[in-house]
């Protein structure tokens, strides 16, 4: 079998203006990639040689967490450096307030033309827009500040058109993801009609490499890969690279019914998660799949990670061939993670670690760091302030995240946070289903999590809380919130969460004071 990570050099010639010493910036997101699915962190079967190679020349953050889920809220935190409690992108379709700064706008102030390959899932602020503007009919908008070189939203029409140009006349819809010879909705390790060189990932990587070869000044690019986001389907050789028995034990109760019975939110959400979100053409709820089905799906998911890793290797080689490798800061991460069968579910959302623990590798050739490993808790909110420090610019508003450059440069940062924090909002503004089910107002349909190495506390605004003793229960199966023996611990973590939220209330103007000499701004 051909080594899936062996990619031929592109032959791109070096280009650039020697008088401009600014670094190139390459931000890569691979949608729905779990933080434990890297061979560099010891996964039981997944091999990611190209991410590992990047980590070997940079810094690997082993306890990195998304700030929210699903895509739009998670990306809002990544792009703005703000927690959901401040950016208020609650669901896919929640507009991002135009008053907030973001990494693309900041990059423009630093003299770059930030260029997008893929998508950002940013719903625009409708205030000031015409009511008939078609941009108000989708959450798949572009983050303000980006120049879109190659859009690739979830309908994938640009990629389908490219496939047709390569002879796939039947590539007219997302049915292309149905494996050859399979029925719509069937779970199978058979491959789709397109090859490993014709995936969405390969298409987008090629578009970036072509654009990169045209640049003669320092550049800023965001390559936003859809994969390993579903539908779960991948070509040869990745489709059979892993078997259903591969991988660690699932973190889950005896059966799905036991999971649903463990908390009112799970009893609401689990039956409403549909198969069609994960296997193209499938119908019905996830409860129709058994343990063997989840194992087979997870094996495909692992193969999709290997496919993306192979294309990352292609990008690394292109940068080296172009003479850009030693002047390019690379940030590799994901917006959120994937349950992958843990707790008898798929996708993202809720409160389990499986939805929020994501990979992060930063390689800054200027730092001289190589092979650094960070076990402190870091957040997607830290990416924007990290880029601000690297580019020597300031955000136009207060940020919740902190720069990770001290870890990249020296391996540590005194006084760093001792816990991870994330939020999830399950309101349903358009249809009101969650509100009716629970008898709650929309602003009561949310939760917040604080999690350190010992305990994980989940606070629901209007539903019962959860507390997990992670040292004794790393799979999050035993909620001890109502156990009198843990009453003091529950109070301690509730107070920690309250203090965190108090520290991070919107600081847009809170660090400014009007004095006799005029406004004084002093940010920490």
UniProtKB/TrEMBL annotation:
Q: Which SUPFAM superfamilies match?
A: Alkaline phosphatase-like
> A Pfam family name for this chain?
Sulfatase
> Cross-referenced CDD domains, in alphabetical order?
PMH
Q: Which UniProt keywords apply?
A: Hydrolase, Metal-binding
The answer to whether keyword Metal-binding applies is yes
Organism in which the protein naturally occurs = Rhizobium croatiense
Record carries keyword Transport: no
Q: Where in this chain does the record put each Sulfatase N-terminal domain?
A: 23-392
Give the top-rank taxon of the lineage listed in the UniProt record for this protein. Bacteria
Name under which the protein is recorded: Alkaline phosphatase family protein
State the residue spans of region: Disordered.
1-21
């Amino acid at each position: 079998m051909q080594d899936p990570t062996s990619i031929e050099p592109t032959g791109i010639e070096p280009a650039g203006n020697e008088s401009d010493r600014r670094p190139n910036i390459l931000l890569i997101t691979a949608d729905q990639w779990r933080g434990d699915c890297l061979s560099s962190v010891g996964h039981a079967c997944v091999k990611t040689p190209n991410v590992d190679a990047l980590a070997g020349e940079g810094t690997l953050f082993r306890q990195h967490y998304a700030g929210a889920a699903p895509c739009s809220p998670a990306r809002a935190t990544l792009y703005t450096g703000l927690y959901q409690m401040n950016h208020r992108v609650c669901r896919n379709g929640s507009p991002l307030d135009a008053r907030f700064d973001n990494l693309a706008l900041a990059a423009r102030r630093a003299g770059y033309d930030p260029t997008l390959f893929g998508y950002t899932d940013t719903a625009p602020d409708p205030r000031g827009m015409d009511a008939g503007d078609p941009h108000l009919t989708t959450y798949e908008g572009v983050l303000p500040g980006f120049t879109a070189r190659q859009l690739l939203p979830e309908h994938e029409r640009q990629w389908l058109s490219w496939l047709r140009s390569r002879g796939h006349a039947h590539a007219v819809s997302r049915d292309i993801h149905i494996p050859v010879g399979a029925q719509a909705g069937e779970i199978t390790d058979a491959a789709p009609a397109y090859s490993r060189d014709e995936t969405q990932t390969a298409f987008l990587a090629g578009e970036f490499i072509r654009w990169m070869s045209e640049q003669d000044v320092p550049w800023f690019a965001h390559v936003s890969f859809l994969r390993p986001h579903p539908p779960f389907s991948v070509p040869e050789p990745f489709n059979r690279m892993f078997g259903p028995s591969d991988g660690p034990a699932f973190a889950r109760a005896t059966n799905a019914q036991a999971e649903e019975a463990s908390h009112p939110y799970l009893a609401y959400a689990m039956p409403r998660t549909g198969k069609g979100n994960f296997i193209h053409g499938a119908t019905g709820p996830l409860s129709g799949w058994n343990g063997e089905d989840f194992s087979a799906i997870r094996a495909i998911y692992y193969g999709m990670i290997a496919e993306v890793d192979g294309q990352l290797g292609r990008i690394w080689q292109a940068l080296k061939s172009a003479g850009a490798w030693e002047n390019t800061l690379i940030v590799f991460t994901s917006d959120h993670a994937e349950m992958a069968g843990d707790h008898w579910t798929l996708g993202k959302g809720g409160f389990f670690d499986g939805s929020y623990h994501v990979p992060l590798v930063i390689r800054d050739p200027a730092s001289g760091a190589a092979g650094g490993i960070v076990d402190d808790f870091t957040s997607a909110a830290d990416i924007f302030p990290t880029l601000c420090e690297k580019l020597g610019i300031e955000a136009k508003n207060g940020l919740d995240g902190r720069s990770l450059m001290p870890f990249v440069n020296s391996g540590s940062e005194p006084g760093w946070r001792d816990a991870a924090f994330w939020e999830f909002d399950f309101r349903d503004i358009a249809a009101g289903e969650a509100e009716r089910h629970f008898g709650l107002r929309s602003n009561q349909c949310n939760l917040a999590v604080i999690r350190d190495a010992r305990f994980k506390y989940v606070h629901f605004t209007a539903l019962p809380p959860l507390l997990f003793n992670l040292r004794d229960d790393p799979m999050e199966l035993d909620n001890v919130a109502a156990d009198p023996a843990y009453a003091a611990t529950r109070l301690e973590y509730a107070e920690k969460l309250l203090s965190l939220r108090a520290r991070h209330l919107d600081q847009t103007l809170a660090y400014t004071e009007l004095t006799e000499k005029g406004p004084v701004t002093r940010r920490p």
